[in-house]
Amino acid sequence: MILAPLCRTKQVPLSRLHNQMDDLFEGFFKGFDRPVARTKAWPAIDLAEQDEALVVRAEVPGCDPEDIEISVSGNTLTISGEKKETKEEKDKGYYHIESVSGSFRREVNLPTDVDNSKVEATCTNGVLSITLPKAEISKAVKVQVKNN
């Protein structure tokens, strides 16, 4: 029961430690199928394939667009950034804090080659949208079958 007093007085650092431990285990088990561990990575990401592009949506509420970095290297999209801590009012007695702050990093393996020079990103109402146009070599080509 040594942790009980620590949890009441050090809620924000303890939650930060929890997130760092999640990141550590996520990195260690990356690539393994873990049906038992259903941890939710942050930010949540949706990846959709269209005819001409891949579209990624990431939920980043509370993040300023200036604090988000996006890079593409080979077939890996990396989204990283920081959600800055909100100003905590010392005179209020918090019983429960779930708001998260700190740095984040997500890597997404892309299913096809993309044209890195044409990647575009926007952030509106806490939703980051990234459009990754497919590379010409990756686009499907229709081949006409000739009759001999």
The biggest sheet, with number of strands, parallel, antiparallel or mixed sense and barrel status, is: 4 strands, antiparallel
* Total domain count: 2
User: Compute the gyration radius: what is it?
Assistant: 21 Å
CATH topology of the largest domain: Immunoglobulin-like
Q: Give the termini distance in whole angstroms.
A: 83 Å
- Strand and helix order: HHEEEEEEE
Number of strands: 7
Number of helices: 2
Q: Fraction of residues in helices?
A: 10-25%
Structural class designation: alpha+beta
CATH class membership of the largest domain? Mainly Beta
Shape: elongated
The stretches of 5 or more residues where confidence is low (pLDDT under 50) are 1-12, 33-39
The averaged pLDDT comes out at 78
Strand-residue proportion: 25-35%
Q: Architecture of the largest domain, according to CATH?
A: Sandwich
| Biggest sheet strand line-up | 1-2-7-6
